[in-house]
Amino acid sequence: MNKVILMGRLTKDPEVRYSQSDRPVAIARYTLAVNRRFKREGDPEADFINIVSLGRDGEFVEKYFKKGQLVSIVGRIQVRTYDDPQGNRKWFTEVLTEEVHFAESKSSFENRVAREPEASTQAPTSQSADGFVPIDESFDDELPF
Fold first, then answer.
1. Residue ranges of the domains in the chain?
2. What is the Cα–Cα distance from 104 to 53, expressed in whole angstroms?
3. Is the pTM of this model over 0.85?
4. Strands, E, within the chain: which ranges?
């Protein structure tokens, strides 16, 4: 079984191109920064995973996904190979999406982006208009269930 479920933040706005066929298909490429649950001294805190969304998912990603947004994807790992101009074989691993989802509310994302330049360390305590309460992402304890 080849099934991947990831949640992370977009490292930049998705790059979208359309195929050169009779019925052009959207091809959205983007990278998710997925935090590691456990970190060792000197190891990176996140993995940067290449994602590809095709067709309707690609169009959705193009329209709604923005840099820094917390998103969730379901898909499968795809490994491709190619030969570079020097004749060396190169391997490329990416996740091809089957589902794409928002993992935070629009207002929460917009509020976080608006506060970013302040570099505030205080966690917000009020509930937003859409009913979501922002959580402190630095919380690292295990869940009780």
1. 4-103, 106-139
2. 19
3. no
4. 4-10, 15-18, 26-35, 46-54, 70-83, 89-102
For residue 81, what are the contacts with CB-CB under 8 A and spacing of at least 6? 89, 90, 91, 92
pLDDT tens for each residue of 4-54: 999 999 999 999 999 998 999 999 999 999 998 877 777 778 999 999 999
Name residue 16's beta-bridge partners.
28
- Cβ-Cβ contacts under 8 Å for 82 (sequence gap 6 or more): 89, 90, 92
Single out the residue of 62, 67, 51, 74 nearest to residue 15, CA to CA.
Answer: 62
Rounded to whole angstroms, the Cα distance separating 91 from 82 reads 7
Closest residue by Cα to residue 52 from 78, 84, 83: 78
Superfamily of domain 4-103: Nucleic acid-binding proteins (2.40.50.140)
CA distance 30 to 104: 18
Q: How far apart are CA 74 and CA 22, in angstroms?
A: 28
Distance CA 19, CA 93 (A): 21
